Structure formats: C-alpha cells, structure tokens
Amino acid sequence: MLNLNQLEVLVAVVESGGFSGAAKKLYMSQPSVSNHIRNLENSLGVQLVQRTTQGARATPVGEVVVAHARRIFAQLAELETSVAEHQGLKAGRLLVAGTTTLGTYLMPRLVADFSRRAPRVECQIRVGNEDTVESWLIRGEVALGLCIDTPSAEQLVAEPLFVERMVLVAPAESPLLGRELSPADLADQRFLMREMGSATRRQQEAALHLWGLDAVDKWDLWGPDILKEAVYAGLGLALLSEHATARERESGVLGELVVEPSTPTRTVSLVQRADRILTPPEEAFVAQLRAVAAWPT
C-alpha cells in the first residue's frame, strides 16, 4: 500500500541524484532510504529507480510516479494553507530555514520569541548552506529563509533586515593580537575556510582578495563550529560572523585581529519565493522579522 513517506523519499532520491543525497536531505540513514524505495517498488510492482555509476535516476515509469507525487504534495500544501487561514495562530506549523550560521546562532532566538506569542504553532528549523537553503525555497519545501547573499534564482526575492560584521579570529595566545595589522602581516598564516556553497566562504574569499592574499595557504572545513575549534587548536585563522564567535571572544578563548583594510560587513536578508502564499503563522513571523533592527541579544 502506498504511503506519503515512500513518495517523499522517491522524490528526494530523484532530485538529489542518489540515495546518499536523499538520506542527507531527509535526515535518514541510507539503508532506510533504500528500504522505502524497495517497499514502494514492491507495492507498485515496477522498478522506479535505476542505480548508475553517477548515483541514481528515475526509470520512465518512475518519472510518472514522481510527477504524480509532486502534484500530491502541492495539493497537500494548499490544503494546509487553507486550513491555517481559518485557524490563525491557534494551530498550524511554521517551517523556516537558515544558512549554517544564521540557522544555528540566530534562528533559534527568533523562533523562541515567536513561540512565546504563538505557543500552539508547531515550529521547525532547517539548517543548510546558502545554496541548500535556496534550493529548499525554490522547491517549496520551506516558505521562509534567512540568507546572506542576494539570491541568484529569479523566483526568489530578498528583503534586507540588518547588518553584521565579519571578524578575523585567532587563538588567544597568538602574537598577532593587540596591534593593528596589515595584509602583509598575514601572508604567512594559514586561513581556515568554510565549504564551497557557503555564503561565508564567498565572503572569506572576497576578504582575502581585498587583502591581496589570494595565494595564501587555505584549508577547507565544514561549518562555523569546526572552524572555531580548529582556530582554538592552532590550525590557522578564520574569518567568521561576529555573532558566531561572540561567546568565544567574550570568554577569551579566541581573539579578534584588527586588520586594515577592515574586515567586511554583510547583510542578513529574509528570502522567499515571490509567488508563495504565506500561512498566518508565516505572515506573523515575517512581521516579527521586519521589526528586528539588529541581531537579538
């Protein structure tokens, strides 16, 4: 017998181009993804997914099933929206997304404020890098996202909210602390970089270009927490959000380097699809965001 979970997994496998990508997207194990696909194929009596050396793709009949599944999920979303319009903030769901830094360090505070005003609304937060959040928004998996870069997709619109600084951090015992530095003082340092697809990564690269340090030694790491731990361990320097590093700098675990030209700022924006009809919880959350003039403390 068909169920929605199996259809959701099938769509994820096809859109991700493989089982491992679908597992990561759905926060499931890869064997669980395989079991869902196998059970769905057994229910329908046909092969829906063909494994290839590059991953996986839908068979011809699989493409038919995926198309039907997408229409089903679109109708369910319309149903949720229609019901939510009658419920207001007395029920419903708020599903929002943020880039790795914003989703980790900002979104929980914003959702906590919202939940105190609408305690009966179920809240969920998704976190991914900039490219991932934009793909969720485009596919309609989430209605609202907090991002840094201006979205490249024409379906998405961005509304600037506020500005934050980027800070260059070093271990507390670094001899570079306590004086103004020039880019030449950093030429022999290793820089720890976010993964490709991250807005922070693009800003890190822009800062190094501004300082004429494009050829400096660079190591790629995943996520701001790993970068902070790597800096603490003495593996190099990292340019990160002022808010992502606030606790470490206040406690003295990491120190901020002063460089001239100064490190850049960046704008936090609310991003959504231009044609998306928002539910009452989503509209209320947008109103809350528009009232935020600075990063909440």
Automatic annotation (TrEMBL):
Q: Does the keyword DNA-binding apply?
A: yes
User: Which InterPro entries does UniProt cross-reference here?
Assistant: LysR_HTH_N, LysR_subst-bd, WH-like_DNA-bd_sf, WH_DNA-bd_sf
What molecular functions are annotated in GO for this chain? DNA-binding transcription factor activity; transcription cis-regulatory region binding
| Keyword tags | DNA-binding, Transcription, Transcription regulation
Q: Which domain of life is it from?
A: Bacteria
Query: What positions does the domain HTH lysR-type occupy?
Result: 2-59
Q: Which SUPFAM superfamilies does the entry link to?
A: Periplasmic binding protein-like II, Winged helix' DNA-binding domain
* PROSITE patterns, sorted: HTH_LYSR
Q: Which Pfam families match?
A: HTH_1 (PF00126), LysR_substrate (PF03466)
Give the protein family: Belongs to the LysR transcriptional regulatory family.
Please identify the protein, giving its name as recorded. Answer: HTH lysR-type domain-containing protein
